[in-house]
Amino acid sequence: MAILKTDNLTRRFGGLVAVNNLSFEIPEGKITGLIGPNGSGKSTTINLISGVLPASSGSVEYRGRKITGYAPHMVARMGISRTYQQIRLFEKMTVLENVYVARNMMYKSGLADVLMGSKRLSAEDRANEKKAMELLELVGLADKADELPKNLPYGYRRFLEIARALATEPKLLLLDEPAAGMNRDEFMEVMDLVRRLRSMGISVLLVEHTMEFVEAVVDHVVVLNFGQKLAEGTFAQIEKDPQVIEAYLGKEEL
Ligand SMILES: Nc1ncnc2c1ncn2[C@@H]1O[C@H](COP(=O)(O)OP(=O)(O)O)[C@@H](O)[C@H]1O
Ligand SMILES: [Mg+2]
Asked: What's the whole-model pTM score?
């Protein structure tokens, strides 16, 4: 069963076709790797799925429903969350607040509740804070809850971004190079975290250039080249594909 399908998804930037008639599926409950050379359209694909960029043509279907053209907050509300290749955090808020504010859209209380300081709102505040703390525990940042993000080692900032993406309780998580810039220990931890997310029932689309990461965690790989799907299969299958070696893997050794 696919949780998400793209159908001939295309995005042009002027004369450049960054994503070109891309059709692929993300199986539910699995980790799907999205790999390919620099500039092959991986981040653009995530931007299209998450509604950050509109598609030029083609469509995205999530759990049987077309979500093409939905604004990012609508996509998030439906259960799709993402991280960015360039980390985006609220630098003036604490680590805990960064996760906590991401839960805002989950609030059931309305403006009237806020103005009157209602019981419902304070109960929601407490529940949200508890949930945010659980997410920090999940990613190993609970003891850093009161720090500012700038005081975290670089790799930990990536873990915080993942915790924040999880705050909206996604069913599908899109991770754009989550291990970039991590040291060896952080790298091992992030691989373990991605596996734990799968065991929690979260489907993952993983953009990653470290083949060690891809080989160790993915169930299924889609290979892009110049915005097009070059190959698809298990890691063992694509690793032996002459076209993939020519376009991408062969160059990694250099
Ligand atoms: N906002 C943009 N405006 C113009 N060109 C873009 C934009 N975003 C991406 N591109 C171009 O689209 C292509 C694919 O980029 P990207 O999706 O970031 O590749 P990848 O993530 O695989 O490295 C590249 O040639 C890139 O320069
Ligand atoms: Mg990218």
From this structure: 0.93
- For a mutational test of ligand 1's pocket, the pick from 6, 11, 13, 248, i.e. the residue with the most ligand atoms closer than 8 A to its C-beta, is 13
Is the shortest distance between the CB of 90 and ligand 1 below 6 Å? no
Which residues, 6+ apart, have CB-to-CB distance to 143 below 8 Å?
none
Q: Tell me: the pLDDT tens digits for 79-137?
A: 999 999 888 899 999 999 999 988 876 656 566 666 666 666 677 778 888 999 999 99
Each residue of 217-246: pLDDT tens digit? 999 999 999 999 999 999 999 999 999 999
* All structural domains of the chain: 1-79+170-254 (3.40.50.300), 90-167 (no CATH)
Instruction: Kindly state if the Cβ of 229 falls inside 6 Å of ligand 1.
Output: no
